[in-house]
Amino acid sequence: MTEKINIVTLGCEKNLVDSEIMSGLVHERGYSLVDRKEEATVIIVNTCGFIDEAKEQSVNTILELAELKESGNLKALIVSGCLTQRYKAELMEEMPEIDGIVGTGDFHNIVQIVDEAVRGSRPVWVGNPVFNYEEALPRKVSTPRYTTYVKIAEGCDNNCTFCSIPIMRGAFRSRSIESILAEVRTLAAQGVKEISLIAQDSTNYGTDLYEEFKLPELLNRVSEVEGIEWVRLHYAYPGFFTEELIQTMANNPKICKYVDMPLQHSEDSILKRMRRPGRQRDIRELIARIREMIPGVSLRTSLIVGFPGETEEDFQRLCEFVSEVGFDRLGVFTYSNEEGTPASRLPDQVPDEVKEWRANTLMELQRKVTQDRGSRFVGQVLDVLVERYDGRSDVYIGRSQYDAPEIDGEVFVKGSNIGIGEITKVRITHAFEYDLSGEEVLQ
Hints:
Blueprint: E1 4-9, H1 13-29, E2 32-33, E3 42-47, H2 52-66, H3 68-71, E4 76-81, H4 82-94, E5 100-102, H5 110-118, E6 124-125, E7 147-151, E8 153-154, H6 165-169, E9 173-174, H7 177-189, E10 194-198, H8 215-223, E11 230-233, H9 243-251, E12 258-260, H10 268-274, H11 280-293, E13 298-305, H12 312-325, E14 329-334, H13 352-374, E15 381-390, E16 395-400, E17 411-414, E18 423-431, E19 436-440
Parallel strand pairs: 1-2, 1-3, 3-4, 4-5, 5-6, 7-10, 10-11, 12-13, 13-14, 17-19
Antiparallel strand pairs: 8-9, 15-16, 15-18, 16-17, 18-19
C-alpha cells in the first residue's frame, strides 16, 4: 500500500521551505501527499521551538494529531524541526504517541525515516545541524504559484543572549550562489514572480563561504533571472547592513524597497545585555542613511519588551523611539525565558503581566504610526501584485512591493478582469490602519 502523507508546518518561513523539500522527497519516492489529515497514514509535524508559546503549540498539535490513530487511518506520527533538535530525548521518553523524530539537519533523510517509522522501529535521526542543501533537492512549493521563499543560509553565529536558534539550527552556513540561482531559475520556470530571500541572518550571507559580504551580488544576480519581477529581503541583521547593500537596493528596480530589519530594542543598556550590535545612535544613523538613499522605503522591525532589567523608563524611551523613527510595520514580542540561553540567568526578570501590558501599549502606539506612514501613498500609483478576488465586495486584493506576504498590509483594488498573480498599476485613494485601497490604472 502506498503511504498517504500529510505535512503540518508550524513556525517560520524557514520551516515552510524545509516542509516543502520533505514534500518533494516523499512525492519523488512515490508516496501520495494528502491535504486532509483524516486520510493520512503518515503525518509529519514540522515543529517550532523558538519561544514557550511555540513549544506549547507544537506539543498540543502532536497530541491532537495522535488521536487520528484511533479515529482515522494514521499509522505513524513523525515529528521534525526545532523542537526535536533540542528535546529529542524528552520527546521520545515522554510522548509515546511519537513514532519517529528528525532534527533540523537531517530532514533530507525523511524518506528513510518514514519507511522505518511505518515498520514500527521508532527512528531517531537527530545529529549536529550541519546540513546545508546545495544539490537540487526536489521541492513542492505550497505558496501561491507567483510567490515563494528561498533560503540562502542556515543557522546563526550572532549568539544573542535571548535566542536559542544557534542551539537548534547550528552555526551560520551560506548556500553557494550557484545553488541559489539554480533553485530560483526552476521556480521562475514554474511561474514564480516574487522571490523572498530568507535566512536567520541574511546580511551576513557569504562571509563564511566566500570570506566577504556577498548579499549585494546575490540580490543582483537573482533579479537577473528571467521571469522574476520582485526580489524581497528578510531578516537583515543591522550590524552587517553595508553601504554597498543600501546602494544595491536603491539602484536595482527589481529589488523591493522594503527593509525587514529586526532591532529588538532601542536602549543601549538593553542592547548590551542582549548582545546586539551597535547602539541606538548607530541604529538611527543607519535608518537615516537607508531613507536618504532609498526614497519611499518601507521599514519593518521587531522589538522585544520585558527583557530582564528593562525598567519602566527604558520602556517609555522605547515608545519615544518608535514614535520618532516611524516604522512602517512593527512586530512586538514579549521576552520568553529560553532554557539554556544566557538571558535566562539574568537578574531582574520582568513579571508576565508587565510584559503583556508593555506589548499591548506599544502596538497601540504603532497603529497610528502605521496609518500615518501609509497615508503618504495616497495619490501615488503603485505596482500591486494581485492575489485574489472578493466577489462579495467586487474588489481585487493584493500587495505592493512595500508589504511582504502574510505578515503585512494589503491593497484593495477596484478594477475589472485583473489576472490573479499579475502585477498591475493602482492609483491609491485611501489609507487605513494597515491597508490601502485604490483603483486600477488602465494602460
